[in-house]
Amino acid sequence: MDYGGVPLWVNRFLGEPSVMSLKDRLDPHRYQANNPESCPHRCYCPIQWPTALYCDHNALTSVPYSPPEDTQYLFLQSNNITSLPSSVLAKAMDLRWLILDHNQVQGDLLAGAALQNHTELRYLFANHNRLSAVPRGLPAGLRQLRLAHNQISSISAGTFQGLQNLTVLLLQGNRLQTIKPKGFTGLLNLELLDLGENRFKSVPTYLPPSVQQLYLSGNNFSGLGESSFAGLERLKYLRLSRCGLQSAGIPPEAFNMSTLVELDLSYNRLATTPTVPTSLQYLYLEANEIQEFKLSSFCPGEGPLSYSRMRIIRMDGNKMSYSQLPLDWVYCLRVLQNIFV
Length: 341
Fold this sequence. Notes:
By secondary structure, this protein is mainly β.
């Protein structure tokens, strides 16, 4: 399970289960509860994690009726569930994780109203379903919302209103083309936003200013503007691979962000190295069409204080060799650890 392409970190001090599925375990019955009558049919209630309910990989067409009231971690991935009625989880008010990846939830049948009273809910995963809209009315305590690879085509104003605690939002692999004004209003603490593999023709506007990791790979951009990332004063990691970018479409000021640490421009159509801030440490340019390595891309000036903090550069799969690097590159890239050409 990829859980939307971002690792799921487990806090064992909070009693969070370290096993995401009991499928293909040597003997699943050894995980069964002492009192199997309290466990829903075709599910497992392991002794090791008494508040976890595993109903994944069972070809279920609906959520098991009335899961135990003390359920905190509900695993429903890889079934054929089509909807989430509000009555099903009415008694599981302590629910913290709801994993619905790889099901058949369609349209807007994942109703936020079914979960709005679950104030303890922290993770909602519904990757690889058939959702056409982001659920509304979700509880304010939600920390991660993963809706990758659905059929979401728009984000209207107020969609995320009240989700001020959300830190991770995955929307890659949908059908988004634009973001409407106030579409991301309310996301005051969002750190990771993945909008890759959508249908954007340019970098979307109205992005949350708190974002530190922005993933836009797999869109088809005609180019970047000087202010494409204006206002993102905390941005550290930016992914723009497989976007069809050309050197002529990237102005020198496009990446003028002193906070930027890592930039991925791999698998594009660049002919020369782009201008990047001296604070950048990791640059990925593999599989482009680069024929020219310009030191001015990394060090705009001269002198002992004008040098790049770059540590790793990947340029393999381009149209130049190591012997074509400028002889004085070591003065500009004096802290470089590895360069792959």
